[in-house]
Amino acid sequence: MNLDKLKIALQYALPKHAVSRLVGKLAAAEAGALTTTLIKLFIKQYKIDMSEALHEDPAHYKTFNEFFTRPLKPGIRPLAEEASIVAHPVDGAISQLGDVVDGQVIQAKGHDYSLQTLLGGKESDVAPYLGGKFATIYLAPKDYHRIHMPLDGTLKKMIYVPGDLFSVNPLTAQNVPNLFARNERVVAIFDTEIGPLAMVLVGATIVASIETIWAGTVTPPAGKDVFSWDYPAEGDNAVKLKKGDEMGRFKLGSTVILAWGEDKADFLANQLPETVTRMGTPFATIRD
Q1: Is 102 a catalytic residue?
Q2: Distance, CA of 231 to CA of 225 (rounded, Å)
Q3: Rounded to whole angstroms, how far apart are CA atoms 173 and 187?
Q4: What is the rounded average pLDDT of the residues 1-17?
Q5: Is 148 a catalytic residue?
Q6: pLDDT, mean of residues 197-222
Q7: Which of 125, 148, 167, 209 is catalytic?
Q8: Which long-range contacts (CB under 8 A, 24 or more apart) does 102-106 make?
Q9: CB 207 within 8 A of CB 183
Q10: 14-23, 102-111, 139-148, 243-252: range with lowest mean pLDDT
Q11: DSSP letter string, 250-264
Q12: Who's near 241: CB < 8 A, 6+ residues apart?
């Protein structure tokens, strides 16, 4: 068995939820000098550019989670403010992007999966995206882990889908069928100028939690049930976000998947698999 096959086999055997819960507790612990040492080792291992961080000194962060979800210095990610531009929501790298064909999207070469399953299983939730576009962006450990709006939107619905916690790195995406549609995830559906926009925050091994700015940490009761929440378009409970506003964050790394409807917006020609992304930069152009 070669090393890659061994890595995949170990993921199937690993008690991923138990390991992730344990790591989550450790990442949330205020362990003083030990926390600072771990952060310094992490910075060195993943060659993290701390000059971009609002707080450059590793000792500033009381927990590893604080460090991992660190804010950036103001203005360090200029926003493509043109009304015709869909902006990148995260720092990361494009895994795949393209058309939603017969309700399927590409995970990796030789692996497609169901967008309906990804979004929680309801035909009514997937219908607006059939024939539309999708994009998958992978956030590596070195990346900035806050997620921002690619354009103005009003939250319509949030869906929590329980699932596994496989790693979402490129090796796993190439070898585990239906990876993103089998992992735990949070789906946020927004009304926007290009119609319904789905933003899917996919969990992964040792991801301690997924947060949104309107619900905090999304942790429904354990089990196999899908949970959903509807949100009003107006009033005190409405969630309205501008392009560039933070909408969520990962505590440890993962993947974001976007989907929008047919004939709404087109990816720029320079946006290809493996392209490095920076939050706020141009991603797609809105059709007239």
Answers
A1: no
A2: 20
A3: 19
A4: 66
A5: yes
A6: 83
A7: 148
A8: 103/130, 105/134, 105/136, 105/257, 105/259
A9: no
A10: 14-23
A11: EES--EEEEEE-TTS
A12: 149, 152, 153, 154, 155, 190, 213, 247
For residue 217, name the pLDDT band (cuts at 50, 70, 90). Answer: confident
pLDDT at 196 over 90: yes
In the block, which residue shows the tokens 């531009």? 85
How far is the C-alpha of 196 from the C-alpha of 154, rounded, in Å? Answer: 10
Question: CB–CB of 280/77 below 8 Å?
Answer: yes
Residue 16 is predicted with a pLDDT of 57
pTM for the model stands at 0.90
Cα 157-160-163 angle, rounded to 5 deg: 155
CA dihedral 104, 90, 162, 233 (to 10 degrees): -90
Distance CA 227, CA 236 (A): 23
Q: Are 240 and 154 a contacting pair, CB within 8 Å?
A: yes
Binned at pLDDT 50, 70 and 90, residue 39 comes out as very high
What are the helix and strand counts (H, E) for the chain? 8, 18
State the catalytic residue, choosing from 20, 95, 167, 254.
Answer: 254
Catalytically annotated residue among 91, 145, 167, 209: 91
